[in-house]
Hints:
Layout: H1 17-26, H2 30-36, H3 43-53, H4 65-75, H5 87-99, E1 112-125, E2 128-137, E3 145-152, H6 158-162, E4 173-174, E5 179-186, E6 197-200, E7 203-204, H7 210-213, H8 227-233, E8 239-240, E9 257-260, H9 263-266, E10 267-269, H10 276-279, H11 285-295, E11 303-307, H12 311-322, E12 327-332, H13 335-344, E13 347-350, H14 356-363, E14 368-373, H15 383-390, H16 399-407, E15 408-416, H17 429-434, E16 438-441, H18 446-459, E17 470-473, H19 477-485, E18 494-497
Parallel strand pairs: 11-12, 11-14, 12-13, 14-15, 15-16, 17-18
Antiparallel strand pairs: 1-2, 1-4, 3-5, 3-9, 5-6, 6-10, 7-8
Helix pairs in contact: 2-3, 11-12, 11-18, 14-16
Amino acid sequence: MGTCHRLKQRQRGTGSVAQLIKLENCFVGFLSGIFHHPAFLPPPFCIHLGKATRTAGVSFVGSGYKLRKRLYCKLFSKHKGCKMMNPTNIMAAVADKVLGHNPTSTRQQPKTHPTEKMKAIVWHGKFDMRYDEVPRPMVSEPHDILLKVTATTICGSDLHLYSGELPGMEKGDIVGHEFMGIVVDKGPDVKLPIGTRVVVAFDIACGFCDFCKREEYTSCDTTNPSRVAETMFGHALVGVFGYGHMVGGYWGGQAEYVRVPFADLNCLPIPEDVPDEKALYLSDVISTSFHACEMGKVKPGDKVGIWGMGPIGLAAARWAQILGASTVVAISGTEDRLDIARSLGCVVINYHEQDPVETISKMFPQGLDCCIDAAGFRFAKSIGHKIQRALLLESDTPEIITECCKACRKNGIVSVIADYPGTANNFPIGTISMKHLRLESGQSPTQRIWKMALEKLRTGEYDPSFFVTHTMRLKDVPDAYKQFYNREGGMVKIFVRP
Length: 498
């Protein structure tokens, strides 16, 4: 029977909710306190995991971070890399162990070659990426290909993994979700010929669930086994390459080889007239930035503001121009990135020198038609939100969204393409309601967008070269993470050869 008629039952964990409750009783509320106390976890974990375990919410204040971490590592000492993980990742791993997994349409971990090795970028903990030798993956399902990677890159969202701020990472995880290469092996159900040069979508879609049938590929219902994600968000998320176990734990593309499930859907053949240096970015940044403008319904004559001039923000600025925006306002605190925006013809605002909302109000008294948040949850600006994030009273800061809502015209649109994985205090719900704003968010359904985007590359109407600042080899990527995270050396987007 085909994959669409069989969902493989994955291991459901070694524990159970009842067992966890017994553990809680044995340790006199110790685990219960960790589940609830904000000193250990961002709010989504405090709330949802507490509900999942039916705990009584016993308050616990331990005797320090190191002691609590040691106790937790001792309780779950079999979990690899525990000593290298922060409390959020430890708790995510514990919750994954307790809650178990949902059935999926494909395996997450590939079969590996018994003797052959490869090089890959491997997560070892907070601020610790390494160039390691690991087993080489193999075709593991009938719908798989084995890809020999010819180009990869670091995504801005990979920095959330580097900083340890996203839960679900485990020591030994291979990272990277933007990559392309040559098909060197395939399963019997794959139509792509061996030798085909392809770019791979960052999201892993099955092609046959209800969401995929509607081309809502980043909502695929069958490729992520995580019950932790299901508990946090109400439904499991799509599987993603190299982005941790909250989205499946799949091996990523910052490597010499990658196993790609459902290859006929998740790979796009690239014609000879489009070089790797351009095609690579169809995997995420070009498609995602278009999606940002698509959610914002950018049309001819619109005035568009974009917060965050990383790769997505810069790429979205170019898409807004192609879609006919009369003015694009680029907001950032990094001058070399604003220089790139200036070269595109954008109006620029350095938020260190000018208040974005006040400046936009003076330029456009009625406000902007569309405001795009391409910055995200990590960038607290006020002392209040910096403190709340430091104390884990909130996981995300809503300040950029608040600025977008204030700068947007009445009945305008706020497009949130940036990452927001948790919860935020002081969210501007009143501004959204009273100004009749529409707020849309979500990840790019890349497989629906990339053929159109490929044609723009072929005609030259869209050329991603303007945001590519560095070229390097895979062995140099660990150092590039540090440079990218610290915004050093003018780094915006890199092109990596294995």
